[in-house]
Every structure is written in C-alpha cells, then in structure tokens.
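User: Good morning. I'm curious how phenylalanine would be positioned relative to this chain. Could you predict the structure with it bound?
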Amino acid sequence: MSSESTGLSSQRENWGSRFGFIMAAAGSAIGLGNIWRFPYLVGKHGGAAFVLVYLILIAVVGSTVMMAEFAIGRASRKSTVGAFWVLSDTHSWTLVGWIATAAGGFIILSYYAVIGGWTIKYIIGSLTDLMPMAAEGKSGEVFSAFVSNSQEVVLYQVIFMALTMFIVSGGVGKGIERACKVMMPLLFLILIVLIVRSVTLTGAEKGLEYYLKPDFSKLSGESVLDALGQGFFSLSLGMSIMITYGSYISKEENLANCAGWIITADTLIALLAGLAIFPAAFAMGVEPGSGAGLTFITLPGVFAKMPFGNVFSALFFVLLFFAAITSSMSLFEVSVSHCIDDLKWTRKKSILIMGFLITLLGIPSALSLATTPEGNPAIAIAGKSFLDAMDIISNNVMMPLSAIFTCIFAGWAWYDSARKELTNQDTITFKLLPAWTVCVRFVAPVAIAVIFYMGLKW
Ligand code: PHE
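Assistant: Good morning! Here's the predicted structure, ligand included:
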C-alpha cells in the first residue's frame, strides 16, 4: 500500500523505476508550452539561431535550477513547503515554498485544466462537426461559440479535472508514473505520424525553411528573454513541481543525469512539434501564430484542407490532451502532497478537497473568454481576461520570485547540503559541480531577475 495514503512521510513512496521517473518528469515538462509556443518562438526569432540560444540558456540556467529543486526535494523527502521548513534554520524560507505551491499547485492548474478541457472537446469535435466548419474558414466562429457556451466549457473543465484527480488518486507510482509511461511514448508516436504527414505535403519545404533556416539577424535581446522565459515554463521550474517529484527519487539516483534526460526529452518534443506544424501550415498557405489561436483556430483550418483531415485533427488533439494531462497531474500532485505532508490528510481526502477548490478557482477562467457585446473578455482583471490574468500572476510574478529564492537558498544558505545531495553524499562524482555552483549563485538568479523585471509590464 502506498505510504502516501497513510500520510506517513517516513515511509515515503519512491518512483518505481528510473525510466518511470524520467517519463513522469518529462510528462510534466512536455505540455502545451512545447506545442503551441516553442515552435512559434523559433519561427519568429530566426529558426536554428534561436534554438542555439535556447539550448545554451537551458543548459546553463534551466538545468541548474532543476538540479537545485531535485536536491531540495530529495534531501527533505517532503513537498515544497515542508521541504523549505525542514531544511532551513530560520524557517523564513518556507515562504518560498508557499509561493511556489500556490503558483503551481493552485493557480496554474486552475486555468490549465480549462484548456485541457478544450482539448477533449476538440478531439470529439474533430470526429464530428469541426472539419466541415473549418473547411469553410469558420474555425474562429466555432471556437468563440464554444468558449461562450458557459455550461459546455465548465463541463469539459470538470471532466479534465476529474481525470486528473482519478490518475493522481493512484499515487505516485501506480497513478502518475504508470499513466506517463503509457502516455508519453504514445505522444511521441502520434507526433511522428503528424510529422510524416506534414513534411510530405506539397509545399512543405517553405515551412521547413521558415522554421529552421538560421537567421542570426533576427536574434535580439527580446529573443534571449523569450528563450529564458519559455525555458522556465517548459521545464516546469519555479512551480514546486520538481521539488515534489524530487522528493520521490531514490537516494541512489544521479540527479544531474536525470535532469539531463528530462531536458533533452522536453527540447526534442518541442523541436519536433514545429516539424509537425510549420510544413503543414505553409503547405496549406497559412502563416501560423501561437497559443490558443494557433491550436484551436488556425490548425483545424489547416487539417480541414488535407485528405482524412478529421483523423489528423483528432490525433493532434489527442497529442495535446496527453501533453496537458501529464502536466496537470504534476501540478495537482504539488497540492495533494502538500496536504498529505503538512496537514496529515489522507491522499483521498486531499484529492477531493483540493480538486474541488481548484476546479472552483478555474470556473472564472473558464467563463472569462466569452466576449461582451463591446468585445471585452466576460470576466476581466485590469483589462485582461481572468484566464490571462492568472497566467501572468503565476508565470511572470510568482514563478520568477520562487525560482530566484530557490537558487539563493541552494547556492548560499544550504549550499553544503546541496553539494552533498548532488554527489549522493560524496559517493559519485559530479564533474560540473564548480560550474553549477557559479550558475546557482550568480548566473541563474541574475538571469531570472531580468525576466522578472521585464515580465512586470502588465
Ligand atoms: N511545462 C508545461 C508546458 O510546457 C507547463 C507547466 C508549467 C506544467 C508549470 C507544470 C508546471 O506546457
């Protein structure tokens, strides 16, 4: 029986296998961001030139923070709030744990589940009435009609949350790990099918050229900032996730090595997503954007022009669903493990109460995208839809704050123990330790502070 269900953290559950853990953490990292934002950024900022900048930044900053989070999680064997509490002398660091937990386990999940619900609606839609409408150029109307239908959006949000709750109720090994071990390889397979379809369309080369041809003249300061912000979001950093997942890693595992695998998988899938999207879009004469517009409006239009477009469209939304749900499991595990560890609730009680509260918080996001007669979002904060406002608060404010302080904690306040944790108590060598030390102390906090400052414009 899982120790989580009894709330005894002394017998904390571990991941079943290294492969399982890497699939689960990669499942968290690989999400909507990989599919609807990364390819767009690559196209916008000069193709391969941007990829190079992105790779350097995640290798230097992203991997540093990921290792710090794994070390904090594994050393404490607690979820984030408890981790900072037990590892710090003054306990004031616990505030960092609260910020990260509220951002990841609560706010992001509330609206992420709304979008997850849309993917379910679009899987069904692809096989029913979406394609005929999209073929007439009406995919925009289909999308606005859907997000304005309050009962339907909430229904799909609730279904998506219920599925997340169901999987997480199996615990870390039998729930999350097992689901990710099935869904992540399937996601990869679907992506390959979509790429083969996309690059074999007539005119696909134009998309490939736009996507990948290096153009260093398009690189700017903004490219660097975009790369860094995307890297953090994409690797699920600063949201308490990698600390929580780290708390289930066995003491023998090599943390640096695991981080390397997860980052490689995340980047590979992001790059491949562009190979599925750009050649198809250019072959069909559409210049793609990013975000919800690309996925729910532009791409259905692209699929509608292909033979068997309904099948490819359905496959694409299944892919998006897998990407979204494996990320939402990680977000939900953050709040569930917090309740188990710190409030001593059972897993079942934690899931029911937190699931209910998070769904409730998601409802204004779900309803916010309908438009008023004046063309404004139905529920808005300072002119942004409630969903966008939640996204900005969590990603542009809370995430960088928690990430900066996590680096300061691991690099200064708790450095000796962090070093020991990364070398498994000096039993394995971590050759890059000196480089990691410089990054965690100076490079990463400064880099994150810059994104933080730039992201503060509302
Ligand atoms: N990493 C996920 C993505 O790329 C999003 C995410 C962010 C998931 C933070 C969990 C936490 O879409």
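The beta strands are 380-381, 384-385. Residues 1-9 have pLDDT under 50 and may be disordered.
Let me know if you'd like a different ligand tried.
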